[in-house]
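Archive entry. Fields below.
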Amino acid sequence: MELIQRPRRLRGSDAVRRLCRETRMSPDSLIYPIFVDETLTGVRPIEALPGQNHYGLDSVNLAVEECLAAGVNHCILFGLPAHKDAIGSSAWAEDGVVQQAIRAIKAKYPHFYVITDVCMCEYTDHGHCGILRGHEVDNDQTLDVLAKTALSHVQAGADMVAPSDMMDGRVAAIRAILDEHGYQTTPIMAYSAKYASAFYGPFRAAAGSAPSFGDRKGYQMDPHNRKEALKECALDVEEGADILMVKPALSYLDVVRECADTFDLPLCAYSVSGEYAMIKAAAAAGLIDEYRVMCEAALSVFRAGANMLITYYAKELAQAIQKGDIG
Ligand code: PBG
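PREDICTED_STRUCTURE:
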């Protein structure tokens, strides 16, 4: 057979396959979510997320040490406060759970990069991501509390803030308050295209943040929409975002690709709790090879154009990259 083109030539050995990989990953592009529970002493496994833990303030540095040992140098912090109320006031308390966790980490590991999730849903007694007027989240009143919360995280030592609430105008409000207080150089990672997704189920069990009535469709995006994601990203760029995000990841790879092609800001994707839990459950049932599926799923997000990934598998992926199994 006379074949000039034989693509298999570049698949013939591990060495040539590794040479020709089009997608490269690095542990530097992975971000690990850490859950800190103000009411906890020590470490407690999260039932909804097998292999993940809640950390007490006394042991948050254990989580950091596990990251560092695996080669992961970035985290995103989520807090479970001891006290919730209608306006989520412990979100911006100076001695709030996230603020205390940041100080504990920075006292011991000043170079470990700490991003904080800025949202109200873990702090409100109704579980919505902002301040209610009747049964609706009031956008403009919520901007004030989000801005105060972001500022308090940065004052406690956070390196970057990541608003995940999906209120209109939150990036501008946060940028303004940070600048006013002299934090012009602190970046904002905007959860720009965050969809109203069923894939957040295990997270809400883990963070105690499920809404007590209704759903989040009035502020998070409709999964049917693609152009709306571009609009959300464009607005965040205008408002001063430094990094854009698409969330969830796997069911939204088309959106990841389009945002990567359209905007010149770094793009983050969040491989959310349901994506992780599905792999764990299928592997526990003996249906798939967890390690290989973990690698392939993460790889697909980078191939789609993401520059960084928030994932519950960050530590395992960093090891897989270092071994050369991916990237
Ligand atoms: C807070 C927030 C959520 C997630 C990240 N930040 C939950 C939600 O919007 O209900 C989801 C993360 C995950 O599922 O892993 N608003």
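CURATOR_NOTE: The radius of gyration is 20 Å.
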